[in-house]
Automatic annotation (TrEMBL):
GO terms for cellular component: nucleus. This is SET domain-containing protein 6. It comes from Magallana gigas (Pacific oyster). It comes from the Eukaryota. Keywords: Methyltransferase, S-adenosyl-L-methionine, Transferase.
Length: 384
């Protein structure tokens, strides 16, 4: 999705003029972007599809203007126009002085800010078609998140994101920008701009999958490098997402290609997939969710803490229940046990749930005996 936000259009009589102006703006920018994209001879854009607000479930998207058959190429994107640190105008700087960060995104974010602030950047038409603000929960007020999203897991995820964004900007990005102020625009040293670029990467970037061991499609690049390669991919990010998608992005040696995975009739929207993602994940990363029951990947996470707290309240032996609860919570902290995940067709972590319920319902001595027999554990290794 693109321009101006990842939110379905709302028909409101009080906003007709605003919506009309917005539609015109989206159309003009989409047309300019398509002209830029098509000006590269290595790119290909099918005459059977178009981009813009008309017919899209959101502000912009891709719609078929003629019947498309399964297997047809919708567009091909030359790797030359992918935006990433090695393709940016400051690639030599990164090669000389790499940016090391926990997220692994810092170089991409810095090069995006630099290209955004460069008037004659090759990617200017691309940035023009992106929204000024992406409607992600990270930009909502804390009150809005607490009121609307408590219990979904999004509040906790956003709080973690915001903390990491601020920490990495202050400790890594801003010092790097100041160090290289003769090369990088001073306008890049801006937390709000940085957060906007983070939202672009969250909502629009693509990660190239690692090649198969027996494949030589992608040359001799190191596999570890491929795993962490994140690109901004002009045109591919114009497509909206649904779980039941009808197109798929294929990574090839010299290009990326969007291919129809089923027949698409004239007037239908072309949808990509962002992955097998639950609604809470879609909302967190992309700013939208699918109405029930459209998303067959949707899940609900039941916090293990909730199960343990209830079990402790209902237990006859309160002290032993408390020890069991502490035992499991320690395992959660060690990342050995996670929450219970329920999908549309049942529990997806049934082994985890079975283990929790089994141990929670055992008598104290039975648990002690079981732990004592397991792998010759010492007294200090036993269950509390």
């Amino acid at each position: 999705m693109a321009t101006p936000a990842k939110r379905p259009r709302e028909e409101n009589n009080d906003q007709n003029n605003v919506n009309a102006d917005l539609k015109t703006l989206c159309t003009n920018r989409a047309n300019a972007f398509l002209k830029w994209f098509s000006s590269n001879d290595d790119n290909f854009f099918s005459g059977k599809v178009t981009i813009g607000p008309d017919g899209s479930c959101a502000q912009n998207g891709m719609v078929a203007i003629a019947d498309v058959q399964e297997g047809e190429s919708l567009f091909r994107i030359s790797r030359k126009i992918l935006l990433h640190p090695k393709s940016s105008s400051i690639s030599a700087l990164f090669e000389k002085d790499p940016v090391n960060s926990e997220s692994g995104w810092s170089e991409l974010l810095i090069c995006m800010m630099q290209e955004y602030n460069t008037k004659d950047s090759p990617w200017k038409p691309y940035f023009d078609v992106l929204p000024e603000t992406v409607d992600l929960p990270m930009f909502w007020t804390e009150e809005e998140r607490e009121k609307l999203l408590t219990g979904t897991g999004v509040v906790e995820a956003v709080n973690r994101d915001n903390k990491k964004i601020l920490t990495e900007f202050q400790s890594v990005v801003s010092p790097y920008l100041k160090k290289h102020k003769d090369t990088i625009s001073e306008s890049c040293d801006d937390l709000e701009l940085y957060k906007r670029m983070v939202s672009y990467v969250m909502a629009y970037s693509f990660t190239e999958p690692p090649k198969d061991d027996d494949s030589d499609d992608f040359g001799e690049e190191d596999e570890e490098e491929e795993k962490s390669t994140i690109y901004m991919v002009p045109m591919a990010d114009m497509l909206n997402h649904i779980a039941n998608n009808n197109a798929h992005l294929s990574f090839k040696p010299d290009c990326l290609e969007m291919i129809a995975t089923k027949d698409i009739k004239k007037g239908e929207e072309v949808f990509n997939t962002y992955g097998e993602l639950a609604n809470w994940h879609l909302l967190h990363m992309y700013g939208f969710s699918e109405a029930y029951p459209a998303n067959h990947y949707d899940t609900v996470d039941i916090p293990l803490d909730l199960i343990l707290d209830i079990a402790e309240e209902e237990a006859e032996n309160k002290e032993f229940a408390r020890k069991k609860s502490l035992f499991f919570k320690q395992k959660v902290m060690e990342d050995l046990i996670g929450d219970i995940v329920v999908g549309t067709k049942g529990i997806l972590t049934d082994d985890r749930l079975f283990m929790v319920l089994k141990i929670s319902n055992r008598v104290p001595q039975a648990i002690q005996d079981k732990c004592a027999r397991r792998r010759g554990e010492t007294e200090t290794d036993r269950f509390p």
